[in-house]
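Problem: given the chain below (58 residues), write out its structure.
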Amino acid sequence: MLEFEEDLILIRGMVDSLSILSTSEEVNGTAFGSALFGIAETIDYHLKKLENSLRVEC
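Solution.
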């Protein structure tokens, strides 16, 4: 289970990086920036659902 939790932490860091990139000056307000933000939000939502379901099972 520890390895899985470490993977979640790594994925969470990637999602945070996507969120930061989506609001950077270069892409903020562009379709690309909006797409990055949408991707980050979608992944974040599903990660939270996964983490909640893991807590319930454990």
